[in-house]
């Protein structure tokens, strides 16, 4: 006996009946015969369905065995990832200071840096926690991480050596505002520090970017960042993040012609992120924040506009997260600030009352550490058809049991799928080595 998958999304568009499964990623058009078969299975009449239809629908994941608990499968996959000892993931804030003063930033820019003692503590912490690991990943963060470029060089050199000696796979990335990221700096990051990806923020075109991405002296930063991106995009993968608020959404459209005019189409990736009001400093911009449903609408329209210009946004095909949720709820991942304190979430960096430990003492706040690692999927998500794509959104939003807005995919996934349909033929798609032709 079979039942219809809880991860099916059915919708009609221009006379066509589409069916997508967020677990397998299969996406098809159903003819009338298959529609009848699916309805029969939904009514527990599997015995009336042709065997070929059963085979095809099962291969695609649109139907599952009656006894299958699809949620428990994801619970198992997530636990495998969360509690694996093969991986050590670190986000290291080299300093809490920054050369920018962005109004929506949630961090307090205090003069905190890694001195010689704390740098030694950091190296000891990393080396002592590499026992039995197969993978080490470091994300350089801040403040602005490149304010401590020499520290990144020293630590990377030593970690590279240790990982080579122990046959540990080591990778690194960076979150930077891009202002100090010249070609010479990028070459060092790539060749000496194994940094293969950098995320840089551009808040729309220069008109609004220069109002939010402000240097400490009050000047704008757009032209310098754009020039740096042009100089480095051939040697390091650049992902451009665009923070979208009520204040800049109209100007965000202007970023695509600028990137194209500067020869950056097909050379950088770009994604949009809504400005949200965290506690503290960013509460001052809460009025400009968007509700997720509103952001989802703008996101779809921005993607359509980019497509109309010929800017390559990529497939943007919705795929499941597998065992991943967030590093904050993973056992062997930490955010380390320049005071030598350990945190679980990026948004808590520098808030000493929320730390879970220190480089020297290890985990000292077990209650908070366990609260993060034992975070579970919110109840409202368990019967959602796109649960595998989101898995409860950001754990910080529901850590204390608060209500929260759903991921924007909840509101624009059909737009994403139709966009993909218009670009690619559905007659023969390969997803997880399963071919569907219905």
What are the key terms here?
438 residues, alpha/beta, TIM Barrel, 2 domains, 10-stranded mixed beta sheet, 3-stranded antiparallel beta sheet, 15 helices, 35% helix, globular, disordered C terminus, S-adenosyl-L-methionine
Q: What does this molecule look like?
A:
The chain is of the alpha/beta class. It folds into two domains: 90 residues, no CATH class; 327 residues, Aldolase class I (TIM Barrel), CATH 3.20.20. 35% of the residues lie in helices and 18% in strands. Strand 12 and strand 13 form a beta hairpin. 37% of the residues are buried.
SSE diagram, text form:
Layout: E1 2-4, E2 8-13, E3 16-21, E4 27-29, H1 32-42, H2 51-60, E5 63-65, H3 70-82, E6 87-93, H4 116-128, E7 135-141, H5 149-166, E8 169-175, H6 183-191, E9 195-201, H7 206-212, H8 222-232, E10 237-244, H9 249-252, H10 255-261, E11 269-274, H11 292-309, E12 333-336, E13 341-343, E14 357-358, E15 362-363, H12 366-373, H13 387-390, H14 395-398, H15 409-423, E16 429-431, E17 434-436
Parallel strand pairs: 6-7, 6-12, 7-8, 8-9, 9-10, 10-11
Antiparallel strand pairs: 1-5, 2-3, 3-4, 12-13, 13-14, 14-15, 16-17
